[in-house]
Amino acid sequence: MPKLCLILGDQLSLSLSALQMLDKDSDHIMLAELYTESHYVKHNKLKIALIFSAMRHFAQQLREAGYHVEYYAYENTKDQFSSFTDAVKHQLTQHSYTQLICTEPGEYRVNKEMQSWHHDLALDILIEPDNRFFFSLTQMHSWFAERKVPRMEHFYQFARKQTGLLMEDNKPLGGRFNFDKENRHAWQANTPLPPTLEHQQDKITQEVLNLVEQEFSDFPGKLERFNFAVTRQQALAALAHFISHKLPQFGQFQDALSDKNNTLFHSLIASYINIGLLLPQEVCQAAIEAYQDEKAPLNAVEGFVRQILGWREYVRGLYWYAGESYKEKNALNATTPLPSWFWTSKTQMRCVSQAISHSLDDAYAHHIQRLMIIGNFSLLAGLDVKQVCDWYLAVYIDAFEWVELPNTLGMALYADDGLLASKPYAASANYINKMGDHCASCRYNPKLVTGAKACPFNALYWDFIQRHESKFAHNPRMALMVKQWQKKDVSDQKAIVQWATSLIEKLDQV
Ligand code: FAD
Ligand code: SF4
After folding, report:
1. Strand 99-103 to 4-6 pairing
2. How far is the CA of 360 from the centre of ligand 2 (A)?
């Protein structure tokens, strides 16, 4: 009797562990587009289209490679199955199998469902570790468990030593692990921008786009902006495009903000890595080869490798180490409801409206927009942690809970009380003004703190410090800001708090 292998929509890699357990000639593979998976948050239409199209192309690739594939398309499953369990049970009525093989899923929600199959399904269940990361979950768990303060920078040094990436004779190339100091340039508006890569749309993608337009019409996203790789071949072309046209300046402008361009020198490949079209190892290798071939400087290559070998592995480890209750954390008691403009982008704050409109329409914002504009505003205004996290999970092309949650709840909102970050990423308008050119086109003045023309980030920043004064006074990286607040005249303090309170009361109009 054959075995059955279930592949999830973010497991589209031929090297996937579960696939290695199969006999091509006799075993079966199933993939299922499900109502529940596309509705657990209001996902961006572009993300649904990317995943469905990539799944359909992957099924085709598997068939061409000689596998027997059972494909459950959304049109046929939406009224029939409410979970993977339903779809698998249905497949079990079609054939007899000796074993169900899967690769471990990326999040608690699906993991619970898979674990229930051990007692709910009358066949042997094998759940293999996900082999598409540098480190296994067991290795990550040990690393976290052995440390009192498990910071990313320490993990990154450990990861460099373990993998040997960018290392020579056990020492970091260039004599340092981190070249961040070279990577904090503000945007220079006269910098020539890299070309855009256009991805061809075939019949499969066209059909998926029509389906998503029909079935998800009230979800965010503009399908006419769909320009994503849906096959491994296209994803490899996207990687090559990044290496040739963007990597050399990736480091320099990694933190920059531009009013005219939303992607700058960022790679735009997170979604491809997250769904399995690209592997993190080959992506880092491609960047390192560019350095070896003298096509990109070390600061850029190190900065890029750190994001993948460092941050990406670290947040996955933290997500599973911290446990399912991590998503309930709200250390700063942030409960203000999300203003309506999170779903329309209609705020007068230029930097925020630009970042949100791109997030909604294109399913993309780069890291600094996510962290220092939308995230920073949410932190300062004390926006409800769960609502903010759900928003991030919904809108971005690359959003999956294991990577979205630590980044949003931990990094942007400091809601885990400093498990991920040594200090909150809180900043006033000064930072945004320094790193880019949004403020020049804004109706607010980045230098003013109170009054109708004052940039809301400023009063909210000081009010945030004031609200959490006792907590931050003991944080060595925040104590200086607390002291600055304490040195202000009482009358100034009063005016700032009053102004910030009035802003929070009418956030919809800001
Ligand atoms: P680049 O800027 O070109 O970076 C290169 C690669 O490094 C990315 O493709 C990604 O694979 C990896 N990377 C960079 N930073 C991180 C990070 N902090 N954590 C994990 N991987 C990283 N990333 C996601 O993949 N999914 C998310 O849902 C997600 N949500 C985020 C929410 C917030 C509040 C913040 C601050 C960051 C979030 N990130 C998320 C991390 C990062 O912003 C995105 O990976 C990146 O912006 C994707 O664009 P890019 O491919 O052009 O990345
Ligand atoms: Fe953003 Fe304030 Fe600058 Fe306007 S003035 S763009 S709101 S930082």
Report:
1. parallel
2. 20
Residue 285 structural domain: 137-194+246-322
pLDDT computed for residue 323 by the predictor: 97
Q: Give yes or no for residue 432 CB within 6 A of ligand 2.
A: yes
Q: Which amino acid appears at position 297 of this protein?
A: P
- For the range 213-217, what are the long-range contacts, defined as Cβ-Cβ under 8 Å and sequence gap of 24 or more? 213/45, 215/74, 215/78, 216/38, 216/43, 216/45, 216/48
- Indicate whether 78 pLDDT > 90: no
Determine contact, residues 316/402, Cβ cutoff 8 Å: yes
The confidence score (pLDDT) of residue 499 equals 98
Domain assignment present for residue 210? The answer is no
What does the pLDDT average to over 496-510? 97
Whether 399 and 354 map to the same domain: the answer is yes
- Residue ID of nearest Cα to ligand 1 atom 40: 404
> 225 in ligand 1 pocket by Cβ < 6 Å?
no
CB 66 within 8 A of CB 22: no
- What is the 297 CA–ligand 1 centroid distance (Å)? 21
CB 444 within 8 Å of CB 453: yes
Q: Whose Cα sits closest to atom 5 in ligand 2?
A: 446
Q: Is the CB of 209 under 6 A from ligand 1?
A: no
Of 291, 322, 353, at which residue does a domain stop?
A: 322
What's the confidence (pLDDT) of residue 393?
98
3-state secondary structure 151-183: CHHHHHHHHHHHHCCCEECCEEHHHCCCCHHHH
Determine the average pLDDT of the residues in 252-268. 95
446 in contact with ligand 2, CB cutoff 6 A: yes
**What is the total count of domains within the chain?**
3
Ligand 1 neighbourhood includes 268 CB (under 6 angstroms):
yes
Distance, in Å, from the CA atom of 476 to the CA atom of 277, rounded to the nearest integer, reads 42
Ligand 2 pocket check: which of 350, 507, 509 to mutate, most ligand atoms within 8 Å of Cβ? Answer: 350
Nearest alpha carbon to residue 102 among 122, 118, 78: 118
| Cβ 306 under 6 angstroms from ligand 2 | no
404 CB near ligand 1 (under 6 Å): yes
What is the residue-averaged pLDDT of the chain?
A: 96
Number of the ligand 2 atom closest to the C-alpha atom of 446 = 5
366 lines ligand 1 (CB under 6 A): yes
Residues 122 and 182 in one domain: no
Q: Note whether residue 215 is domain-resident.
A: no
- Structural tokens at position 175: 């004599």
Pocket test for ligand 1, best of 47, 132, 362, 403 (most atoms within 8 A of CB): 403
Helix (H), strand (E), coil (C) string for 253-321: CCCCECCCCCCCCCCCCHHHHHHCCCCHHHHHHHHHHHHHCCCCCHHHHHHHHHHHHHHHHHHHHHHHH
Q: Are residues 186 and 316 in the same domain?
A: yes
DSSP 406: I
447 inside domain: yes
